[in-house]
UniProtKB/TrEMBL annotation:
Keywords: Carbohydrate metabolism, Cobalt, Isomerase, Manganese, Metal-binding, Zinc. Belongs to the ribulose-phosphate 3-epimerase family. Its cofactor is Fe(2+); Mn(2+); Zn(2+); a divalent metal cation. It comes from Enterococcus canintestini. One of its GO terms (molecular function) is D-ribulose-phosphate 3-epimerase activity. It catalyses: D-ribulose 5-phosphate = D-xylulose 5-phosphate. GO terms for cellular component: cytoplasm. It holds the Pfam family Ribul_P_3_epim. This is Ribulose-phosphate 3-epimerase. It comes from the Bacteria. A divalent metal cation binds at H31, D33, H64, D173. InterPro entries: Aldolase_TIM, Ribul_P_3_epim, Ribul_P_3_epim-like, RibuloseP-bd_barrel. GO terms for biological process: pentose catabolic process; pentose-phosphate shunt. Catalyzes the reversible epimerization of D-ribulose 5-phosphate to D-xylulose 5-phosphate.
Length: 217
């Protein structure tokens, strides 16, 4: 089980502090939400910020690209120090090429599906995925309510992984709190992204501990 705090809900004026805080508290990945105002109706951060935070943590930077034409930016994110690059299947007609580009840059390749997208849409790239990110909210903003219908897709991905011997981790993102994390874990999720639950709290360390505790019961 891995916890990936999303810095979307961190204090952007104190990113280094907020990243080091969750690293000390036992986080496993730092989840970086990249939005372009086109693929999703919000604008956040780009490769320059990834490069700036790279030296402040030893944790893998899990970059979630919610952008159109992701292929055009894969080299920039790889160069900036991303350890994982997640690309939405809905964002490109060339998901296979995008994943190949990520792997050729020696970065772990993640493929992401929105709540309205079936697992079948990524069936033919599962063998090359290091991670599959199942959105449990419609991407764009932190603090939204968990969409329970997405859990079925986690089960499906877990079953396919076992049947065909795929190696991907299954990550869930959106509306993750201890209860929803447990539901996703029971379905087969390995990595749990949490933004508002961790950062919109007086004590993010406690929130990580509570989440971990819920997932080890
Ligand atoms: C949503 C982002 C998420 C977001 C999760 O578009 O991909 O990573 O930060 O935030 P919470 O945990 O608040 O739902
Ligand atoms: Zn995300």
């Amino acid at each position: 089980m891995k916890i990936a705090p999303s810095i979307l809900s961190a204090d952007f004026a104190n990113l280094a502090r907020d990243i080091q805080l969750v690293e000390k508290a036992g986080a496993d990945y730092i989840h970086v939400d990249v939005m372009d105002g086109h693929f999703v109706p919000n604008i956040t951060i780009g490769p320059a910020v990834v490069a700036a935070i790279r030296p402040v943590t030893k944790l893998p930077l899990d970059c979630h690209l919610m952008i159109e034409k992701p292929e055009n930016y894969i080299p920039d994110f790889a160069k900036a120090g991303a350890d994982i690059i997640n690309v939405h299947v809905e964002a490109t007609p060339h998901i296979h090429r995008a994943l190949q580009m990520i792997k050729n840059a020696n970065v772990k390749a993640g493929v992401t599906i929105n709540p309205g997208t079936p697992v079948a849409a990524i069936q033919h790239v599962l063998q090359m995925a290091d991670l599959v990110l199942v959105m449990t909210v419609n991407p764009g903003f932190g603090g939204q309510a968990f969409i329970p219908e997405a859990v079925e897709k986690v089960k499906e991905l877990k079953a396919l992984k076992e049947e065909f011997g795929y190696h991907y981790e299954i990550e869930v993102d959106g509306g993750i709190v201890p209860d929803t994390a447990k539901i996703c874990q029971a379905a087969g999720a390995d990595v749990f992204v949490a933004g508002s639950y961790i950062y919109n709290a007086p004590d993010p360390e406690d929130r990580i501990a509570t989440l971990k505790e819920a997932l080890t019961q």
